[in-house]
Amino acid sequence: MPNPRTGIGTAIPILPCRSIDEQLDFYQALGFEVTYRQSKPNLYACVRHPIAELHFFVLKQLEPANSYSMCYVSVPDVDAVYRDLCDSLRKAGRKVPTKGYPKIGKVNDLSEDRRFNLVDPAGNRLLIGQKHAVPKPAAQGGAPAAPEPGRLAQAFDTAYRLTYAKDDPAAAARVLDAVLPKSEEASAALRFQASVLRADIAAAMDEIALAKEWARKAERLSSSLRLPDEAATAQERLRELLASWDERGCATPIDD
Hints:
The protein is α+β, with helices and mostly antiparallel strands. Helices cover 38% and strands 18% of the residues.
């Protein structure tokens, strides 16, 4: 129960940005409402959305790539929030950004929650997540219920977290590349998941030819899966990758 003397508090992040106008333009396109704007004695602004209230101040020397500012936003339905924010961007006549600053990552399952990362124009990172009702195994992304022993299983789990929790695809690529080419002893399901993850990492780094190469390998491995829904999360991610290339007018990865 809440302490009757203190009640329930609310934390409001105060985040840096290079430009108040740039910040407000992005957050308004996401569906946030501007609730306050100040020009003197210093630039300052506030926005509000059903999921959070955020405040911004100007730090002119800020480099988005070097930003360490982040905030975890707990929501009851992370998939609904993701759809709402993306729909708001589209209604504002914008594409959902997937690279650079700003960008919005896909929703993914981690051991502690289901989440997506939203990075704004200043490099501030909002980790928007929904706690699992039942704790998940450490390995995610459609990993087997009983995680496999071995180097690939460990590398997959590490690379998955680096990609989707830490948003560090370059580090994730290094981890997988050290193990994945020499992983014939691992199950087809795990190699399939790792290949899809490697394709997704390459796509995030705008290495489309490499992404398609790994997608082709995943396609070949998919025929070896024991059940139609084995590694379902990875199968869905592979379909999303193929669809994204089709939307850009690119040949699908199975075209050699």
